[in-house]
TrEMBL record:
rRNA-binding listed as a keyword: no
Spans through the membrane: none
GO biological process: one example: neuromuscular junction development
Keyword Nucleus set for record: no
Name of this protein: Tricarboxylate transport protein B, mitochondrial
Catalytic activities: D-threo-isocitrate(in) + citrate(out) = D-threo-isocitrate(out) + citrate(in); maleate(in) + citrate(out) = maleate(out) + citrate(in); cis-aconitate(in) + citrate(out) = cis-aconitate(out) + citrate(in); citrate(out) + succinate(in) = citrate(in) + succinate(out)
GO CC, any one term: mitochondrial inner membrane
Gene: LOC106562714
């Protein structure tokens, strides 16, 4: 009788099973490394992208009832450069730079801390858990850093539009805000900021986690090319812009020099809808889209590359 044609020698089985076995447990990033890498990434990114943030904020503050001062993005840039030179596009950079470093540090530190607790036995983080980790990171950065930082930044930029600017620099501006409005003056629009940052990071980390898992497939430790990371980050940033620009507009109004006109975050939203219509909730979308796509792409690229370097010189396993 002939041998069974489908018989497989036991000597070959270990090889087949090894080939089909998963690549191993995913390596975790120590929160300390995440804090350091995030801070470095945040500082470099804001220096590159700040002019788009400046234009976005100016267009959002340019209320229809005033009447509008700017006809659009190009006109805003032209008027700013004509009136203040190219340096005018960097007005308020110091306040954002001082805040961007701790903001990114808190964001990535909290995300890695939470994600390390929520990964499965193989070290994999699914997209749903990535969303909740991103939400936690966004809320943390909003309360600890973003709200006071954004309030000062918006007041600086809005102050430049005044006939007689009163802030001479970052520390002078912060001192004047606290002197005239108290510490609460740096926490205007906290609710809107928490909603914005929480939804921002929830969306971004959800998209990034989904794309990373798709790209890595069965190998959780598969290396991702920096250009691919940048493309994933840009897409995640774009999704977050279309998902929460209305919250960003409300936050900006609540932190401007005319924030006293609004009783609350809800009242601000109602008045914008009543006096300016639904389109006003998407003011500054184009410059914000360009800025955020660059922002998220650059931050994730730098963050991942810095973590790789830290893994070589800082052993935490």
């Amino acid at each position: 009788m002939s041998r069974n044609p489908i018989f497989v020698s036991p000597f070959h089985r270990p090889h087949c099973l090894a080939a089909a076995a998963p690549a191993g447990k995913a390596k975790l990033t120590h929160p300390g490394k995440a804090i350091l890498a995030g801070g470095i990434a945040g500082g470099i990114e804001i220096c590159i992208t700040f002019p788009t943030e400046y234009v976005k904020t100016q267009l959002q503050l340019d209320e229809k009832a005033n009447p509008p001062r700017y006809k659009g993005i190009v006109d805003c840039v032209k008027q700013t450069v004509d009136g203040y030179g190219v340096r005018g596009l960097y007005r308020g950079l110091s306040s954002l730079l001082y805040g961007s470093i701790p903001k990114a540090a808190v964001r990535f530190g909290v995300f890695e801390f939470l994600s390390n607790k929520m990964r499965d036995e193989s070290g994999k983080l699914d997209s749903t858990r990535g969303l909740f980790c991103g939400l936690g990171a966004g809320v943390a950065e909003a309360v600890v850093v973003v709200c006071p930082m954004e309030t000062v930044k918006v007041k600086f930029i809005h102050d430049q539009s005044s006939a007689n600017p009163k802030y001479r620099g970052f520390f002078h501006g912060v001192r004047e805000i606290i002197r005239t409005e108290g510490l609460r003056g740096t926490y205007q629009g906290l609710t809107a900021t928490v909603l914005k940052q929480g939804s921002n990071q929830a969306i971004r980390f959800y998209v990034m986690t989904s794309l990373r898992n798709w790209y890595k497939g069965e190998d959780p430790n598969k290396a991702i090319n920096p250009l691919v990371t940048g493309a994933f980050g840009a897409f995640a940033g774009a999704v977050s812009v279309f998902g929460n620009t209305p919250l960003d507009v409300i936050k900006t109004r609540m932190q401007g020099l005319e924030a006293h006109k609004y009783k609350s975050t809800l009242d601000c939203a109602v008045k914008i809808m009543k006096h300016e219509g639904p389109k006003a909730f998407y003011k500054g979308t184009v410059p914000r889209l360009g800025r955020v796509c660059m922002d998220v792409a650059i931050v994730f690229i730098i963050y991942e590359e810095v973590v790789k370097v830290l893994n070589k010189v800082w052993k935490t396993d």
